[in-house]
Amino acid sequence: MNHLPARPRNLLFAPAVRPDLVAKTPTSSPDLVAIDLEDATPVAAKDSARASLPELVDSVRGRSPVTVRVNAADSPWFDDDVAALPDGLAAVIVPKIETLPGLDRIASALRDAGHPDLAVIAGIETALGVADSRDLLAHAVVGAAYFGAEDFIADMGGYRTYHNGEVAYARARVALAARLADIPAFDQVVADFRDHDRCHAECEEAQAMGYTGKLCIHPGQVGIARNAFTPSPAEIDHATRLLAAYEEATEAGIAAIDFEGRMVDEPVAAQARHVLELADEP
Fold first, then answer.
1. What are the two backbone dihedrals, phi and then psi, of residue 215, each rounded to the nearest 5 degrees?
2. Per DSSP, what are the bridge partners of residue 91?
3. Measuring CA to CA, which residue among 10, 14, 16 is closest to residue 30?
4. Smallest Cα–Cα separation from 96: which of 28, 52, 166, 39?
5. Residue 127: CB atoms within 10 Å
6. CA separation for the pair 136, 124 (Å, rounded)
7. What is the pLDDT of residues 218-256, one digit of tens each?
8. Nearest CA-CA partner of 153 in 141, 139, 171, 140
9. SS3 for 96?
10. Domains contained in the chain, CATH given
């Protein structure tokens, strides 16, 4: 059973080694909280962080849906991470997903640990993962996905730029794979968490590509993502008026109209319907 929100707009990470930050995550009202055992937890602290999971989850549960990011399935910590997962999680996040046998192993490990119905948020963040993302995200255990730009470009041997040209193809491919799998997808992290303009711009880009939410590493990014992935009053008003004009025209047998200087036909009307569907969601 998938316990994820239907359309999460943000996923806020906090290091498992910082219980003070974990406990504060609900104050920004994120759609999902992720307690991170992977990148944000040093190797020397993996065991102690894992042992603290029940208390960390309890500090968030009831105020925000909570997930745990475990270490990659081919890491020496994965089996112990999964065995330590407490009940009541919305999902488990598994990074660096690359193969279908790997997903089968993850599903088996979750069953063995007593979590057969726990959905996986699949991290697509390597060259192989991006290349095979359509098949990977269609796996039955996957309930959502994210694109990890930093790990992807490191795997490629490239470097990150402000304008994201180097990850444009991979970013779009993961969004497409998630759409075909009919699952939510989170866009890449903005590592400079003080750059709110960049966060806002990337959220708008991601929404235009079909992403449903944004990975956040600071509470200040949560509201930006929430607003960007929620239709504004002006967008709702425009979509409502456009559909009214289009439906009046189609009833008269006209398939395309000029609406405020823009040609509107069925594909454009479908986009407007999507805006109103999103507006109706909590």
1. -70, 135
2. 67
3. 10
4. 39
5. 14
6. 9
7. 999 999 999 999 988 898 999 999 999 999 999 999 989
8. 171
9. coil
10. 10-228 (3.20.20.60), 233-280 (no CATH)
